[in-house]
Amino acid sequence: MKKENNSKKVESEQVKFPIGVKLAIIIGFIVLVSLGSVTFLNSHFVGQDVKITAENQNLSINTSNASIVEDKLSTVRSNVFQLLDLVSVVTGGRNSAFAKQAELFFFERNQDIASIYILSENSNSTQNDSDIRIINNQFFISNELDTNCLDSFISSINTEITRSCVGEIIAINASPYFGIPVISLLFPYKESGRDQTCIITFSIESISEILGTNSINTTFIINDSDDLLYHPDTSKILNGENLKNNELIKAMRLNNQNNDDSRQIPYDVIDEKGKSKSYYGAYEKLSFGDIVILTTVPFDTILEGVRTTRRNNIYLTAAVFFLSIMFILIFSRYGISLHLRKLTGIADEIQKGNFDTPLFDELNVNRKDEIGVLNQSSKDERDFLQTFAKFTNKGVAKAIARKEIDFEPHLKDVTIFFSDIRGFTAISDGFKNRFENDSPKEIIEFLNDYMSRMVNCITLSGGNVDKFEGDAIMAVWGLLRDDNLDFEKLPDSDARKNELEQKHQSHVEKDALNAITGTIAMRYALLKYNKDAEIFTQAHKNEERPQYKPHIQIGCGLNTGRATCGIMGSDDKMEYTAIGDAVNFASRTESSNKLCGTDILITEDTYNLLKQKYIRCKENNFTIAEENLANEIIVEMIPVEFEVKGKGIQHFYGVVNMPNFNIEQFFKQGDSSFEADSDCIKAVGPTGPKTLNEVRVMLGIPIPEFEKVDLNAEENKIQAKR
């Protein structure tokens, strides 16, 4: 009975004081103490925290605004200099119709630019033949301005013109002359040995729209003479105010630094009533013209929000506590973490070189917060990487992203490819005769169509386009391969040497095989291009000036050998490429196609590399292993000997066909909907040619009289041209 009573007592005590209540009391006590402490400490330190935040924000805004302004000014300079370079090289010079059209197009795209002057030191007093005056008449019409204001302004800056002619970059406030916010940039300009200046006058309305949006921070711009170039108060610019006596500017000139530790300056200003007002001022000097971007924020404005916040915190602390917990859990899970996981996944894909990952399509760029900015920045990065890959090389771009590329110059065994359009000069002349001034556009469209098809074959076969030289293409297989030649340094007793050597040999063979595969695919692609070109030409034959695409033949040369690979060029333009005798021999091989009556030639080095496994020839008793049948190659030796320095007597081998080549399987790697053309599939595979003469008949190549062919003499001609 006693035991039972004790049990009921324990149970009763558990009901009265459950663990949940105890935890609630403890957590409640901790929360109350925490909130009370936070509220008290916040009242004491919030002012200091806000000041620090304001400093950092002011510095950040200044940095961002400086970047925006520098990008804008650099873009203006770059666009103008590109226009000047363009019109200077066209036939007829700057007075040609093409140049005038280029100027009109330029001002349509750059409506904020009022004029572009190229002047010499004495241009205001003497007219020089090299002076250039390009005026955007539409700018003056749109702003209801007379061009006389421009002449008045130019006449007033003789001193600045002289300074710019000898090398200075100068920014000038031209607003007082125009009556609207306008600045002029003077850049040193040299043409035909004359020291000149390029004066670019343009509206700063676009800058005003960006910099004038903040209600707390004020951003303005000055030049090296402390003249205002931009201020939210337009009247200050129009009046041509000078801020030499401004306290922030005086402190900045005294400081004369441009780093984050020194370019944030507190200062005081005495107002008209004699009261002192405290400010934080940040500045950043641009990389040219001694232009300075300054951003200020007043203490009173900062602390006004702090006082309001303190009052609201007292009333809302309890409610915010419960609601914020729920909100933070939900928002952090679905509003931040989810998106950050997507961004992390995208970053991983970019690091792998997958610039086209579909994860980009899942990003919401319509959000008006930092996540939205990050999403848009990620898509912008994707666009940049895709554009970058076009201008360099997709394979190289991916290797850089994956950090797989070896930037140090090194030797590598690679297969080099060269191709060239036969009779391109005559083709180009045909375009010029037919289209005259429009011929560049037509030629480029034709070449882009042709090269896109060829490059697709190179890419699908694992090659990397090295460069385009006119109508010629250079590509390399194995350029980005990550193995090296260190095994050659190992002693013969090292067990790894044979293993590494065999692995390397396998890679080189695979590259050479892929190169021939891609080149065979080009033969199909060429026939398809010629068919499409004929259809295109027929479709436009009744036009007043009918468009057309020419029927073309090409020559391709392949050589396998050791080349020097690495990043080559200057600080302004570099490329990852291969150079050396192996490259030169590949070029010679391509140029020999015409004499040999072929479209694809390989060197003896490439032939010897592949003959035991992939080429059905005398050396392997006209048989190859079953596992290699899919890659069987038919070649014929060109019955002409020639001598190569360091190699002795050599032969070229004409590539006939890969009889088991699956053209649809090859092209479906890049386009799953690909279907082979029944007229063009005769170029490759089971229905392709069996002999070189069949290739010649198919492509319309005359059979050479080999007894009259002298490849050594042809090489001497090539060297003489070089």
Characteristic key phrases:
alpha+beta, 8-stranded mixed sheet, 22 helices, Alpha-Beta Plaits, single chain, 722 residues, disordered N terminus, 5-stranded antiparallel sheet
Description of the molecule:
The protein is α+β, with helices and mostly antiparallel strands and 722 residues long. Among the domains are: 52 residues; 53 residues, no CATH class; 310 residues, Alpha-Beta Plaits. It is built from 22 helices and 20 strands. Strands 11, 12, 13, 14, 15, 16, 17 and 20 form an eight-stranded mixed β-sheet that branches. A five-stranded antiparallel β-sheet has the order 2-1-5-4-3, with helices on both faces. A five-stranded antiparallel β-sheet has the order 7-6-10-9-8, with helices on both faces. Helix 2 crosses helix 11. The protein is globular and about 105 Å long. It starts with a helix and ends with a helix.
